[in-house]
Amino acid sequence: MLVVNNLTLTLTRDLRTLVEDFSFSLQQDMKVALIGEEGNGKSTLLKVIAEPEAIQGYLEVHGEVITSGEVLGYLPQVLTRPMLEQTTHDYFNRSVNLDHFDHAYYYRLLKEMDFPENRISDRILVGNLSGGEKIKFQLLCEMLKKPTLLLLDEPSNDLDMDSVRWLEGFIRESKIPIMFVSHDEVLLERCANTIIHLEQLMRKRKPQYTVARLTYSEYVQGRDDRITKQTQVAQKEREEYQAKMERYRQIYQRVHHEQKSVSRQSPSVAKNLKDKMHAVKSMGKRFEREKEHMTERPDFEESIQVHFEDSISIPHGQVVLDFDLENLQVGNRILSRGVHLHVAGPEKVCIIGANGAGKTTLLRHVLDELRNTGTRCGYMPQEYSEMMVPEENAIEFLTVSGTKEEHTKIRTYLGSMNFTTEEMHHRILDLSGGQRAKLYFSKMILEEAEVLVLDEPTRNLSPLSGPEIRAVPRNFGGCIIAVSHDRKFIMEVFDRVLVLGRDGLNQVNLAEWED
Length: 515
What we know:
This protein has helices spanning 42-50, 81-84, 88-95, 103-113, 131-143, 161-173, 185-191, 216-261, 267-292, 359-372, 394-398, 404-416, 421-424, 433-446, 466-474, 487-493, and strands spanning 3-11, 17-25, 31-35, 59-66, 72-75, 149-153, 178-181, 194-201, 206-212, 319-330, 333-344, 348-352, 377-380, 451-455, 479-483, 496-501, 504-507. The radius of gyration is 29 Å and the shape is globular. It is α/β, with parallel strands linked by helices. Helix 15 (466-474) links the parallel strand 14 and strand 15.
């Protein structure tokens, strides 16, 4: 059994506490979703449980994590460079105990995951697998360990629709307890029966956690209702208090004025006024005591705020892209033939397809084509390191001119993305995946891009920010060409959905893949 006692996690760099006095016991029937905004410690908590040696140097840990008797399976959010540079054959052999290898179980998993056995090869590097293939390959290796406890950090990232549905069934039907982090609201709604919510209040100076034996939908609805009700009660009490205080001030001023005006030859009147003033002051003290017991305004972490300029607008029907590609290929391997993509303003087009179909490769071709036409493009790659210098900080990443006015604007945008002043100066290498995603959003906003090319844009963003993240591109006045497997994002944002297959791009009916 996993037991956590009074765990406190503090970042050594800026002494910010992520989790304080956290206690939790994982029961056998639990499917636990860790939720919270980016940088709040979700991935760190999983790492402390699964790989405590990996957090040395950047995290102070106090408290107790007991995993005695457990066989841990762990899927990290990001693979290290040495892991990526291994062949899939070597990675597999180092991960799996071949002395007790269950061949029947192995082939069953390959079939269920739809992962080709020939991708486990001494000629293929882990880093050359597609995003979805990496997830499936890691999960395959972990499940072959026959774990008694599974820790999954963003397991649905980059999985195609069929694989995500398989993952949902796998989590729900698993006989072992699972703790997982996911941005996928549908997966959370269908799989979680326990919620651990990590928050950072008071501009990330006060950590707070909540454990609830509820489904994700029940927890979010209950939280929203509680915040709304408490806000209304607190507001009403304050309005009533202000009305009382206004009456008190009027009475006080009247009695004070009468005291100043009374004649010294009227001692009895003066005494009456003195007694009245004493009663008035007693009333004021009573009101002050009432203030101390008023309902507190709810203290909660708000979702991020993202806003593109309203001035960005592409006229309806204006051709933005008319793209043809005879062969879509990686090296000598042809992935698709006869690819054609036509986009006119202000369309939002999403490309879906199986893992390894070439969606990211196609998106890069599209980006090159748009840039060649001089279009102002904003690009968010699937692998954030593609356009980031790890040693730069957030401000440096967004800086173009280096003027004082630009730096002020950058800080304002980062603040709206819930970056603290300290985090603005952290190396990109030390930021969470979600924080890096926010940097790309900020970059696109500051550059006033009129066409957004997005590769899995919501993959590392908190599901609690989902409604905000979906509203922004839906109301964007320019065009969007994206790859995504986020079902709510697709349903709420895009005008057209195209599936990439061996014979190019074909429009699909969303009902064909959306449950």
